[in-house]
Design goal:
Blueprint lengths: L2 E7 L2 H13 L6 E6 L5 H15 L5 E5 L5 H8 L6 E5 L3 H10 L6 H14 L14
Parallel strand pairs: 1-2, 1-3, 3-4
Helix pairs in contact: 1-4, 2-3, 4-5
């Protein structure tokens, strides 16, 4: 099993937790949430993230989904890479979160799992419009 951490600004991770409850009837124990508040010390956030990573890691590693590349949640999450057995994907969206939650219990290869979750995020971005015959956006 691969552990998951959602590293987000403020309560965005909590909203994704509610989405998990909607889809799966509860929040799995292999999911950790680390919300970053505006005035919070990044060192304190890193300590919380490290503790969550240790809690959710069942031996196959931890996938960290961060909301925005280059922002504090991603930067702090990236510090977890030094512990080994961690992968960070930035720019998370709802399809990524659902895919990760659905398949993390069976996943064994962290990098392959991260690639599949990333691809699901890309595939979940779809352009719909009303112009006939033109599928481009």
């Amino acid at each position: 099993m691969i552990g998951l951490i959602l590293m987000t600004h403020e309560t965005l991770g909590k909203s994704y937790t509610e989405l998990a409850e909607h889809f799966f009837g509860g929040v799995p124990e292999y999911l950790g949430i680390v919300g970053v508040h505006p005035q919070e010390d990044p060192e304190a956030v890193w300590q919380r993230a490290r503790a969550e990573a240790a809690r959710v890691d069942a031996g196959s590693g931890v996938l960290v989904l961060a909301d925005i590349y280059g922002a504090t949640p991603c930067n702090v999450g990236s510090r977890l890479l030094a512990d080994g057995g961690r992968v960070v994907l930035a720019g998370m969206n709802a399809p990524m979160v659902i895919k990760a939650l659905q398949y993390a219990p069976q996943a064994q290869d962290l990098v392959v799992f991260a690639q599949k979750v990333r691809q699901t995020g890309l595939d979940g971005i779809v352009c719909l419009h009303s112009q006939e015959g033109d599928a481009s956006c």
